[in-house]
Structure formats: C-alpha cells, structure tokens
C-alpha cells in the first residue's frame, strides 16, 4: 500500500527530478503538485518546462498544479517533498508542518536550526528523532526534516568513514561544481563556456556548517556539532551534472591509505528503496572519479572517491556525486523513505 | 642592437607562442628555429601547424627549420629558448650548453638539479648567479636556466609576497587547469567536454618541489629550499587558457586580509621588457579572477588574485595566470631578458 | 572636432560593446548613456554589469545614466546609437527622431519598414538617402537608420559580391550561431553545453527578408527588394562569439570558384574609420574560417569566407563574422560614420 | 541457440560500443575479439582503454585479444563485426570473407563497390541479396556487408519516407556533428572548445554518394543509384554524441508538412532485436530535436526529426541520430541481425 505524497515546488529543476523518481516508486504515490500562484490551475505539462531527457511520466502531465499553500493541499497527505526556493520555503514550510504534514525538504532554510534534523540517512539517520524535540517546542503535528546542500552531501559520507576510523581535526575542500547546481537558469552560457568562477555565494558557508552538524552527535535532546574545522572554496565549472571535490583531512590518529579505503568501502549503506548497494566506491585509477563517467554510479545515489594519498598530518582524496540525484532530489527522497521506515508517517 | 636568438622546438604550442612574442621584441631577433629531424629542411610555415589566432609573423614563415642538434645551430647564437619535450630536452639541452649556448628552457627536465637556476625573475632573480656554480661544475661556456611549471608560476608570486609579510609554514593548493597546459593534442575533446579530470600526472609533484626551490635562499653556493610543506591537487577542466588555483596558507605570524592585499599589490615587478607594471593584481569581487576574463591582464604577464579570507591559522585566496604566456613562453622569455640584463649574454 | 553622441540602452551586451568602441573613437564622443528607469541616476559602473574583457573605459564609469526618454537627453545630441530591446525600441526610437535626433539602431524593429534605410555601408550605403523620403513622410527633423541582424550581415557581403558577378536566383543558408547573439542571459548553460538548438525564433525570417532588402535597388523613392528566394535554418551552438554559416547559391549565370573568390576579395570596402581594409577575406584551407580563430579578423569588422565549391547550379561557400562587432555594435557604429560622412549629422 | 560472433577492431570507440551492445544480446555471443598486432595476447581489459560509462561487461574483460588475421580467428565463426580503421579494413576484410566469414562492417572501405551491399535494414534491406552477385564474382563463401557513414544514416530514413511520398529531385544538407564521430582521439579539445570546424574531410562526399546508393533500386543484378542531386556541408561542433542535420529537399510532387510528417512517422520499422518500435519520431516543437535531449530515443536507434516547413519547391526539416549507436555500432549490429533473419548465417 503506497503512501500519498505531494511535491512543493514541483515545476523547478529539483521538482522535476522528484517527479521522475517518484513516478515509479513502490512506496510513494504522487497526489499533489504545487507551484507558484501564477501556475495554479494549469496542467503539470503546461506549468513545468520539462527539461529531463526521459518524457514526463504517464499520468503526471495531466495533473492540475495547485498553489503552494496549506489550504490548497489535502489534509491527509502524510508526506510533502519540498524543493521550494529558500526564501519561499522559509515562510511556508512551517505552515505545512503546523497543518500536520511531514515535510522532507531540500530547501536551504532552517538547515542549521537547533530543532530541525539535517540528515543523510546512512550517516546520521538517528538525528531524525530530533523530530520529538521539534514537536515539543513548536507544537506541530507534522515535522520538518532537511537534507544538506549538494556539495556537502558529496563529501560527508567519505568524511564520516574517516572520522570513524581516524578522527577528524580539520577538513579543507575545493569544489568543482556543475552548472545544474544553480538551477536551470542559474548560470548563463556566457558566464561559463571556456571559464570557471571561483566563488559560489553562500556555498562555502553551507559546507562549513552543515558538514559539522551532520557529523555531530545527537544525545536525545540536541545535536553537538563536530568540532573539526572545515574550510571550503567553491568553484563553478562548465560541467552539466556532478560535483567533484578535492579534500584534505587532518586526522586525530595516524591514517593509512589502505585503512582509509577500507573504511570508505565498508561504510554501511541502508536497505531503503533508493539506497545504493555500496555507499562509497573507491577508484584506484588516480584520474577517477570524473563527473561525466561516474556521476550515474548506482543510479546516481553512490559517492565515488579516489586519489587517496597520505599527507604529513592526514590524508588527501577526491570525491564526486550527482548533485541533482544524490545531492538534491534523491537526498530528499531518501529522507522520506527513512521517515516511513522509522514510523514517522 | 638586438641579440640573435634561436628557438629549440619551435613548432610546438609553446614554440609558436615564443615565435609570436619574439617577432616584435626590441632586444631579441629570431635567427634559428629547430624542430625534429622529420621537419628539418622545411619552411617554418610548412613544419608548424600554426594555431595562434594572429597570423605567422612576417618573415618567420619562410625561415628554414633546422634539426635540434648543436651542429645545426650557428655557434655564435648567444641565447636559445627551449620548449622541447622533456625527454628530448634532458638529452640535448646539456649538449647545447656545452657548445657554448645559454639556454633558457621551459622544459621540465633539470628543474630541481642543484646547480641549475630555476627562476621567476621578479621572485628569485638572484638565483641566476647559480650559473657560476654550474659552469664550475660542468665546465660549460654556456648555461642552462629553467622556468618552473605553469601551475607553479601562478601561485609563487602571491606566495612570495605572503612569505615576506607573514612567513609560510604550509601551502595547500587545488588547481583548475586549462587544456592548453597539456599541449595542443594533450587533451581530447571526448575526455573533457562536460567533464573534469582530478589528476595530472607529475604536476602535483612539480608544484610541491619547484615552489619550495623558487622560494628558497641562494647563498652563493647553492639554494636552500623553503621548508614550508606544500600539498597540491591538480584538476583539468574545460577551459582553453588560464590556470585558476585555490590556495590555503598556514602562516608563521598572524595575517590579515588587508596586510595580505597590500603585500601582494606592492610586491615589486622589474623593468624588463616583458615585465608587467604590477606583478600581482588583487580583485575585491569574490567571483574574480576568472580564466576567460582575466587571463590576458597586462598582456598575460600578470598574476590575478582574489577571494582573500582569513582562516584559523592563516589565509585563503585564489590566483590565476595565463598558462602559455606567464606560465610558459613568457616565462622563458622573461628569463632571457634577465640573462641579458645581468650580463650573461 | 568630435560629434557628441549618446547610447540608448547602454548597459546591455551590445551597449557595452558600443561604449568600448566609442571610447577611443576619433570622431565621436560619448555624452549621454541611457538605460531603463530603474537604473536612471546611477553611475554607469553601477548600472552596467560590465562583462567585456577590457575594463570600463576611463571616464565612462563615472558618467550618470539617464532614463531612455527624449526629455532626459540633451536636444543638441546629433547622433544616438540604439541597442534597445526590440519592443522598447519600437516605441521610443520614433520619439527620439521626432525630437530631432538621428538614431543609428541595432534594434530589430522597423527594419523592413518602407521608409527606413537598412544599410551595411559597404553594400548599400546609397540606401541612406531613403532618409529624405522618411523625413517627408514622417515630418521628422531626425532620422531612423537600421543595421540588419547579425546573422544577415555575415552573409550579405559575400552574397553581394556573387550577385554582382553572377546574379543570384536562390540562397539556402544554415547557421551555427554563437550564444552571445542572444544577449548575455539569452542562453543558459544547461541549454547549450554538449548540445545544439536547431531553431532561433524569428531569426530565419529576419535572414530571409533583411537580406533581400539589403541587396535590393534604391531608386530615390523606395527600395525594390532583390527577388532571390532565401531559405534559412538557424542553429545555436556552444560558441561564445562568431556566427558561422553554410551557404548555397543558385546563380543566374555560370559561376566558377576562381571568379567567385576574385569577386569576394575585390569587393570594395570604404574609408570610414571602422571599415576593414578588406571587407571579405577568402580562406583556401577548407577547415577555415572557424569562429574562435577568425572572428577577430581586422578588429572583428571583416567577413571571413571559405570552402568555395561549384555545384550543379551555382556555388557553395562558408562565411563567418563576429556577431557583436561586425554584426551589432560595429554595424551601428559604421552606419553612424556613414551618416557623418554623407552630411546627415 | 546463439550465434558465435567476433569483433574485428574491438578496442576502438566503435568496437567498445559493439562489445557493450553484444554482451547482452539474445542472438549473438562474443567469441573472438581482435586488435592490432601490438595488443594481441593481452586481456581485453588491458588492450582496450575502456571509455564507456557502464563498466566492461562481465566475462569480456578477461578474454584474450587476438590479432586481426584470418589465421587467428576460429574458422567456424559465422559472423564478424568490423570496426577497423578504413585503410586496414580495405586490406583484411576481403581476406576474412574469402576464409568463409560473413563480415558486417562499419568501416568506410568498399561502401560504394558495385557488388557490396550497403544497407540500412529498414530502408533497403532487400539490397542484401547483392551478396549472391558478390559471391559469384568473388568466389567467396563468406560475404561483405556495409552500413553507411553516421551522418548519412541520420538523414536517409526521413529521406526515404519523403521519396516514397513525393519523389526527391535534390537534397541539400548541413550537418552539426559530434566529436565522437571522429573517434576518441579524433578531435582535440584545443580545436573545438568555443569553436566549430566547417569541413570534415571525405564526409561530404560520403553523404553525397552513400545516400544515393541506399535510396537506389536493386534489380537482382545490381543497384541503380537514386538520381537525386545531393549536396552536403559538414561541420564539427562541441557536442559529444548526436549528429544534427538541416535538410532541404526539392520534391518531384507537391509536398505538405502534414503528409510529410505522416510519411515519416508511418515509415515501417522491422522486428529485429535492435530495431526501434518507430523508426522516425517527428517533434512539433521547432527547437527539437536537440543532441543532448534526443540522441538516446529508443536506445539510440531511432531517428528524431522536426522543424518541418514547406518551401517553394519542397520541404525543409531537421533530423538527429546517435552517431555511435544508430550511426555506427548499432548499424552494424542491425545488419548482422538482418543477415541472421534472412538466412545468410
């Protein structure tokens, strides 16, 4: 028996990926699609300028898009996926929670709020129980759960493996990020062809804070952030999908490449529908992973790592993930599956 | 009165840039162009597949290409610029030096040899006097002088400025390198369109060693390498020209952004013909420098920096240079100008 | 003594190119820069997001931008260059003409109006005298002069040469157009990386109509359009600047490659400041012209041609021009220079 | 029961695609893989630098590569797929045919030979019986069958549909071809980033001759080529896969867009394993088909068309196909399936 779900902000780039992923999902069934007021009342096919290579899934194109307000969404919809613009999400997501919905959101608002779980299921699924604290404090029947930024998700699973194995004191990361991370219209061709941009507004800060919350400890009352120092430099390059990252870690205990590879490759995945069989795949060819070749590993839900080397005080490695699958739509979906699995729906 | 010069390996990508730069040079005049045995005897226009946007300079296309052997080059040619493939240069450059020529070489061989000056004129021009040691040891009338790798040159001037101001303990650098750095045929389009490659064979090691030699002290007998630890991760991205780098430095003394900008912008240039007016330009817009917009700053001979931020133990910044101008042909040329200025020709 | 000029729509992509070209112009001096109401009162540096590789010219950045209305522009400004969006230009350009200004416009409105000269100076500069008809009919002291669309300009000079030599019955053209032709934000990176788009709205029609007007005859009262049939197919590809076109012509008289090359290369240029020395350059290497290598020929004001071959009923050739120089800002400027030369200012 | 097959030239770009397609094929089983002498004796994993996004199929990587000579290939291998370089294929393919093998070849040699069938199964599968003539003349037990060039295949199905419906007098075509069409190393990144090349050596001629043979009539003794005039202009652009083409046809009878769409969409496919359900898909959105969005239609085996318009003497349209699937490896495979279906194996 499938759970009826809705998508808030269904016409954008991440919303479209959610539609694609949910259309053939065994546990969830799309019942409601929302968009801005201007599109309300239109069919999904008319409201969304569909940009994914496979066609709009059967049955979805004819659905009528509703406005993104609690009044326009059926009360009994247990789970809402949100890919709203951050400023919009900040306003309306709490209203949906108050109206009793559980919201699994990719939107960047509230990610570092004390009573909002920020989870990558395989890494810190236990943080989900922060929902109890949240409900106590806010008096909600629903709940608000967040997944991190796409560039953060890419590095957190390998970092979690290294933290377990050696302890982390410091993380330094340079990213090479795909244009799709900025949304369909986010980067013009004139900006990026034969070019690179060495700064992505707000992204460095997200990586530095969200990763520490994700790697932190939940004690039943709150999350103590990990105390590693994290320093990020984010670059946009002319690739379509797949964020590549160069990472240096200073470890608390001595680390070897062999033990690090073992820690990454044996880091446990889950048995959720969208979980990859193996969370982190480590390449031995130093020229891998590469965005175009490796971004669709295990349906775009695995992390690819490589280039491991020992340094004076730790390790150096590269990692890669598909930013709109594992890094956005797939991340929200996985949180939804975890919510179902843990009995929150 | 101009000095007659030759170019060893004149038909390759860097050789062509040298031809372009030398054609209108006030101090040097091209007298000899060499290439592999297969091209010897052909006109330069026939031997070189010219790939630069401006046409082959007047008078050069008709010159006859000679073989790359001391016998084929006039004895009285004071200065030879070398852009030979490294394996070839390793063999033949010493033979030219033995035959009495001064060789300013971009080829990667011999760069870390104890008696070979590796110089960026503005940074460590004084190392040039290592030629005396070299001549003593090798019994040459000529001399061999090297410029560093293109990715090393890009970061060394800002690092030198920071070293003077605060002292450097550690340098961590991630590069985003243009395809021209691999030579005209070095990166196929199938490898790099919609992609990035997180490793460039040998490049990381060059950055880690050459930068320490360049920042080292010459005491009249030899060079003591700088003892900062340097860790590099090199990436190839789909840009044509211009290497962009993200750099973190751990400084010996406390550093501020303001003092760092001042140190970089006031770092002295020289009065050589190809010297930029200002060696390092610092942008305040965090989205700059960008390869396509900033690689031709001061004719491609300046370093562009930006994104300066304080970190817990030092500073973070970005830098950029044109890899075939400041990073290769222009670097050799500048060494040639320094050799002339210092009386070595 | 220089003529004071203004730029209507000075902050957009073509407006910026006009600023760049006019800043060092010997005959014209920028006195007024206009933009939308939102930017009025700001300095040009603040109002324009400057995207050209060389910096904002000295003295221009500090100028105050005014609104695009006749009231906001000094009455005595003889010449206004317009790069307004077409819908805006359609409304306000006539108002400026009525207020006594001569407007040289790149905007697509009015191009095929009967009493509006559409000119490429070297090809049909005599059409400029249509201004007399225009003034009679509209009662203007000023005048409105247009240059054609960038893809049209690219092929018209070689077509004019072939028409003179052999007569033209039919023209079939496929274009490979650069992203800058759509303006800075016109094509997103997600649309065009690893892709091509086989249609550009309105562009095919512009090529089919504007080229026939340009190649038509002016008899003192009006322009009889050329009666060749013109069929165009327009494609957007991932290049930054430079439109490349494959053209087939059916000629009235038998054509040879040799005579065609001669007709193109000897087609007269003018002596205006921005005129190239040679209007059409013909390459014999069949792989040329190429956008990146040949778009800046003679400062981007020449047309490059190549690939000439005889067909059963005529000829086949390729041509290329820089779409924002010869194809837009440079085209308007050249019309301005012609207006000055012919005494219309 | 599956047919044992071999791949001549299995390590190249098309050879790798063949390996991928054959690995899961229900009728064929890979038994032999050949490569140049230098690779003979190596495992396939070592000999091939695998560049396809999915991994080397199970069991294939361990196979030992043999030399490309009849002696090195088992006598009882009924079918050999050839993706040899043309110059190599010209020499050795006949030797394999003489040794009794049936060769389905993508190599460009022999394509226009009088007794060699050149087939696109859905279009002119009946030409396959030219094998009888071939065997009579050459005394072979085996046979040589060719598929056309990738750019030819793209336009021939829609042209065949239009020929049936209206008759074709003339075809004019401009192509926008992907870099993979030149093989993995065929186009360097320095040649094509921010660029286009308006000529592909030999390609124009292939399109002009092969299309006329494919659309010709086979009368049991030989093929009378279609007498339409075909004029092609071939361009390389910065896309990875998918050739896009702009086509104009002059028709013998009056054509309408509606009838043309109907002719294309109802053009029959076959029931072979690799046949698409619908051979030609026609888009009504004039901005489609686009390489990145539409090249994988029906597993990359369909032709996408669009942009249909009436002209004075016929029609104009665009078409697109995946050049290494439908245009190369898939084309050879389909010919192999047809050979099996028609009892030639």
From TrEMBL, chains A, B, C, D:
<dbReference type="InterPro" id="IPR000534">
    <property type="entry name" value="Semialdehyde_DH_NAD-bd"/>
</dbReference>
<keyword id="KW-0521">NADP</keyword>
<protein>
    <submittedName>
        <fullName>Aspartate semialdehyde dehydrogenase</fullName>
    </submittedName>
</protein>
<dbReference type="GO" id="GO:0046983">
    <property type="term" value="F:protein dimerization activity"/>
</dbReference>
<dbReference type="GO" id="GO:0051287">
    <property type="term" value="F:NAD binding"/>
</dbReference>
<dbReference type="Pfam" id="PF02774">
    <property type="entry name" value="Semialdhyde_dhC"/>
</dbReference>
<dbReference type="Pfam" id="PF01118">
    <property type="entry name" value="Semialdhyde_dh"/>
</dbReference>
<feature type="active site" description="Acyl-thioester intermediate">
    <location>
        <position position="150"/>
    </location>
</feature>
<comment type="similarity">
    <text>Belongs to the aspartate-semialdehyde dehydrogenase family.</text>
</comment>
<dbReference type="GO" id="GO:0050661">
    <property type="term" value="F:NADP binding"/>
</dbReference>
<keyword id="KW-0560">Oxidoreductase</keyword>
<dbReference type="InterPro" id="IPR005676">
    <property type="entry name" value="Asp_semi-ald_DH_pep-lack"/>
</dbReference>
<dbReference type="GO" id="GO:0009086">
    <property type="term" value="P:methionine biosynthetic process"/>
</dbReference>
<dbReference type="InterPro" id="IPR051823">
    <property type="entry name" value="ASADH-related"/>
</dbReference>
<feature type="domain" description="Semialdehyde dehydrogenase NAD-binding">
    <location>
        <begin position="4"/>
        <end position="131"/>
    </location>
</feature>
<dbReference type="GO" id="GO:0004073">
    <property type="term" value="F:aspartate-semialdehyde dehydrogenase activity"/>
</dbReference>
<dbReference type="GO" id="GO:0009088">
    <property type="term" value="P:threonine biosynthetic process"/>
</dbReference>
<dbReference type="InterPro" id="IPR036291">
    <property type="entry name" value="NAD(P)-bd_dom_sf"/>
</dbReference>
<feature type="active site" description="Proton acceptor">
    <location>
        <position position="243"/>
    </location>
</feature>
<dbReference type="InterPro" id="IPR012280">
    <property type="entry name" value="Semialdhyde_DH_dimer_dom"/>
</dbReference>
């Amino acid at each position: 028996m499938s759970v009826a779900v809705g998508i808030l902000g269904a016409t954008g780039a991440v919303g479209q990926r959610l539609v694609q992923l949910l259309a053939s999902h065994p546990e969830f069934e799309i019942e409601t699609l929302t968009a801005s007021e201007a599109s309300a009342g239109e069919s999904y096919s008319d409201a969304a300028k569909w940009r994914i290579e496979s066609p709009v899934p059967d049955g979805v194109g004819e659905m009528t898009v509703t406005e993104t307000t609690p009044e326009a969404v059926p009360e009994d919809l247990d789970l809402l996926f949100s890919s709203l613009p951050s400023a919009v999400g900040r306003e309306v997501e709490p209203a949906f929670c108050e109206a009793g919905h559980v919201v699994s959101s990719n939107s960047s608002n509230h990610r570092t709020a004390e009573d909002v779980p920020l989870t990558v299921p395989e890494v810190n699924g236990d943080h989900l129980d922060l929902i109890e604290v949240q409900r106590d404090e806010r008096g909600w029947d629903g709940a608000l759960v967040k997944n991190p930024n796409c560039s953060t998700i890419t590095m957190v699973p390998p970092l979690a493996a290294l933290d377990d194995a050696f302890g982390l004191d410091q993380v330094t990361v340079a990213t090479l990020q795909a244009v799709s991370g900025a949304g369909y219209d986010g980067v013009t061709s004139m900006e990026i062809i034969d070019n690179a941009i060495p700064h992505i507004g707000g992204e460095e800060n997200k990586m530095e804070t969200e990763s520490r919350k994700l790697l932190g400890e939940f004690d039943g009352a709150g999350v103590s952030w990990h105390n590693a120092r994290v320093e990020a430099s984010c670059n946009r390059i002319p690739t379509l999908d797949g964020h590549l990252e160069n990472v240096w870690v200073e470890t608390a205990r001595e680390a070897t490449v062999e033990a690090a590879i073992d820690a990454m490759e044996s880091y446990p995945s889950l048995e959720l529908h969208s979980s990859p069989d193996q969370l982190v795949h480590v390449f031995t060819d130093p020229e891998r992973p590469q965005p175009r070749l490796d971004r669709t590993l295990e349906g775009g839900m695995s992390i690819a790592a490589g280039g491991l080397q020992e340094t004076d005080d730790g390790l150096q490695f590269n990692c890669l993930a598909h930013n709109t699958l594992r890094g956005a739509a797939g991340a929200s979906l996985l949180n939804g599956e975890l919510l179902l699995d843990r009995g929150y729906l």
